[in-house]
């Protein structure tokens, strides 16, 4: 509602036109304060265990409200209000909203949860990289076994029957068979000029 945010938040709570705090009218200031108080009051509702009888691991009403705030872009707006120097007048409202967001969590649980997820993700990434490395090494070994270890430069020797060399022996041809058509006894001799 008239906040001078550098980036428009995603979702329903978009400002019609960003305004600096000097250009805001009294109505805009009251609207911003009312929205922050509404969010604070919604988050302040205590949990009702009798009403929230769900399956273990199911999201509570508080968690669903936090997810709705995230989807609407309100979390980005709160981060902006908390970090902008010109929006210091909303600091206590934002602080109260953030404390209510973490109402059911203890700092130790949050710290362990963050480290546990990071360690689990790191371990999973390490396992994936190791399996990919093993697969690549196996492919290299398979390719190495498929091709011969050395290239043979020896093209073979052939005996040309019916064509006599010096004496009564047949000609022994040391070139590849594709050169046989162009064979002559003068092959390899220097030509005279």
Automatic annotation (TrEMBL):
Molecular-function GO term, any one: DNA binding
Keywords: Cell cycle, Nucleus
Pfam families associated with the record: TIMELESS (PF04821)
GO CC annotation: replication fork protection complex
Positions of region (Disordered): 1-23
InterPro entries: Timeless, Timeless_N
Ranges of residues in domain Timeless N-terminal: 19-159
UniProt-listed GO biological process terms: DNA repair; DNA replication checkpoint signaling; replication fork arrest
Localization in the cell: Nucleus
Domain of life where this protein originates: Eukaryota
Official protein name in the record: TIM protein
UniProt organism field: Steatornis caripensis
Encoding gene, per UniProt annotation: Timeless_1
